[in-house]
């Protein structure tokens, strides 16, 4: 399945052309990079004859909802190990968890301390004792099969036409797949949604090419954090282009790309393709938080 590239009709300097790949339109629930990451994991779970998918995530996780949607669509039971015991009695106050539960996901809420040990053999063994056999999908969905799926994002024409590819980076899986599929003439910039420079080390475990970089200047305070400036940008961009951006990943990346263009970072006549990795479901939760602080909310009208 391929998504379309949409040209950004904003005046840009130095003959630069800017497009966005609308991966957010791949599927109403399993959208964007989550569709790519789950594709081959679902096939592997079926091959191994598993009936249950188990994964991990936070309160507004795009990944949790995508796994719930994949389970409903492809006939798996789903279990979400959720960070934060306090959320157990607040499911219906949380649009992500409420929708995942509606799609059949069973939750196991754990403390933040326990969640930090989620990959330890003793914790996984405890999960098997509790739930029996399951196919484990890592937090954020990144593993070798996920990267294989993300290698299919770029088309042959994308590889021929664009000089630069950009995407948001969370766990490093999407950009790793993109790097593996790049041509030598292309450059890719990943915009970190997290504080810290550790992502490059993670990505190097999955790639051998060197025509990539990580920019961590546009995280707006860290994962899941936003500022008034970012919200105003999302709304301005939406009013100009009718393209909705999520505030955790793609919105920060698009802000960064346009800021770098303005600062003269990209060479003359660059052809830039931004990857829209979805995550629009998180807007509702973010708007609840913004409203509670009497802040401007993100304008987004679902079709």
From TrEMBL:
Domain of life where this protein originates: Bacteria
Alphabetized Gene3D superfamilies for the sequence: 3.40.50.1100
SUPFAM superfamilies xrefs: Tryptophan synthase beta subunit-like PLP-dependent enzymes (SSF53686)
Keywords noted in UniProt: Pyridoxal phosphate
Residue stretches making up the Tryptophan synthase beta chain-like PALP domain: 15-278
Pfam family, one: PALP
Obligatory cofactor(s): pyridoxal 5'-phosphate
Protein family membership: Belongs to the ACC deaminase/D-cysteine desulfhydrase family.
PANTHER family the UniProt entry points to: 1-AMINOCYCLOPROPANE-1-CARBOXYLATE DEAMINASE-RELATED (PTHR43780:SF2)
Name this protein carries in UniProt: Pyridoxal-phosphate dependent enzyme
Organism for this UniProt entry: Flavobacterium helocola
Upper classification of the organism: Bacteria, Pseudomonadati, Bacteroidota, Flavobacteriia, Flavobacteriales
């Amino acid at each position: 399945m391929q998504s379309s590239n949409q040209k950004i009709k904003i005046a840009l300097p130095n003959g630069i052309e800017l497009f966005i790949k609308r991966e957010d339109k791949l599927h109403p629930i399993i959208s964007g990079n989550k569709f790519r990451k789950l594709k081959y994991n679902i096939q592997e779970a079926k091959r191994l004859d598993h009936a249950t998918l188990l994964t991990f995530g936070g309160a507004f996780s795009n990944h949790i909802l995508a796994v719930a949607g994949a389970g409903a669509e492809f006939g798996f039971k789903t279990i979400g190990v959720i960070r934060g015991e306090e959320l157990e009695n607040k499911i219906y106050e949380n649009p992500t968890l409420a929708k995942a539960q509606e799609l059949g996901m069973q939750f196991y809420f754990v403390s933040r301390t326990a969640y930090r040990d989620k990959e330890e053999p003793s914790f996984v063994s405890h999960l098997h004792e509790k739930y029996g056999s399951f196919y484990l999908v890592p937090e954020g969905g990144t593993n070798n099969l996920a990267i294989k799926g993300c290698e299919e994002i770029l088309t042959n024409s994308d590889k021929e036409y664009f000089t630069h590819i950009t995407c948001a980076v969370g766990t490093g899986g999407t950009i790793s797949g993109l790097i593996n599929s790049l041509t030598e003439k292309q450059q890719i910039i990943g915009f970190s949604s997290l504080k810290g420079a550790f992502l490059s080390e993670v990505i190097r475990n999955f790639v051998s090419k060197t025509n990539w970089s990580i920019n961590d200047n546009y995280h707006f305070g860290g994962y899941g954090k936003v500022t008034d400036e970012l919200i105003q940008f999302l709304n301005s961009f939406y009013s100009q282009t009718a393209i909705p951006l999520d505030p955790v990943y793609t919105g920060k990346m698009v802000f960064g790309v346009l800021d770098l263009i303005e600062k003269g970072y990209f060479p003359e006549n660059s052809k830039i393709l931004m990857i829209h990795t979805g995550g629009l479901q998180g807007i509702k939760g973010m708007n609840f938080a913004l409203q509670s602080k009497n802040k401007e909310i993100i304008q987004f009208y679902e079709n």
